[in-house]
Input
Amino acid sequence: MRAKIIGSGSVTPPKVVTNDDLAKTIATSDEWIRTRTGIAERRVSDEATATSDLAIIAAQKALISANIKAEDLDLIIVGTTSPDTLFPSVACTVQDKIGAAKAAAFDASAACAGFNYALTTACQYIESGMYKNILVIGADTLTKYVDWNDRSVCILFGDGAGAVVLTASNDGSGILAHWLKAEGRLGHYLVMPGGGSRDPAEKNGRFIHMDGKEVFKFAVRVLEESIYAVTKLADLTVADIDLLIPHQANSRIIDHVTKKLGLPKEKVYVNLQKYGNTSAASIPLALDEALQDKRLKSGDIVVLSGFGAGLTCGANLMRW
Ligand code: ACO
Output
């Protein structure tokens, strides 16, 4: 028994912030941001919008696209590191608001790798036979945690949510291989210090601190490692990949890795120019757009790979 994606949905907030908008308040330029990251604009949520508000919309769209009712869900997992509150979890808020009365619900915290961690976890419940229908969401509003005066961080992030519905299937398609990794020893390179139990009063601030160069080095190393590993686990090779959907953080990271792997550009889905890094939302958002763009056909081999704070990395390979 395998987990198969039978529906997807995504959403981003309506407010667009362009690179030129940022250049009005910090010492940067459209040219610098495009050249160093590939990002042209990002979506930023308003004060009233919390992560669950986006997650609920993405979830409802995914349920419609999967043509299943919320009452038929057994489990909801949300990959997020920007929950509305430390508790209840975003997943429990989604469970209530969409009316998934019998579903269990919890959040998975692996930052930008959160969707792949959540997806792999969900697959285990289906492969073991414990559950049949699972909603997996990646949702984040990290723009609420950036210092808009810190030009090395604020240019990177955007908000959004993406969701998929998984069901048990034995028709040979579905998610064939999973690969997860954590390198906690490098965790200090990407930290949000305030708000947790070490600093509940946020004396150390509530903003993201990042050593961009070190995260970049980790990203190119583990993105490549994850793609080799997950294809090997599925008894395939990189040449068998029809579409790679990498975490949408920086086009230089994606270009560097895909060049090394020998994957042509048309086999790599990139939409970060429109949204920036939406953290756990980036891969399901890109997957949903790829489906709308008709980039996938039955039988295609698709690899999803993400990396993020922790530091973490996770990949899943599926036959569409
Ligand atoms: N505009 C103009 N100049 C800038 C900006 C900016 N927005 N930001 C930094 N600079 C300057 C720096 O001050 C530095 O100037 P200096 O040489 O006078 O000191 C110069 O540009 C070069 O800075 P670097 O940090 O070396 O720039 P780099 O090429 O490394 O790019 C970047 C920075 C884009 C952040 C890159 O390191 C990166 O993308 N790293 C990966 C980050 C990432 O993917 N994070 C994902 C996190 S996932 C999660 O879990 C949240």
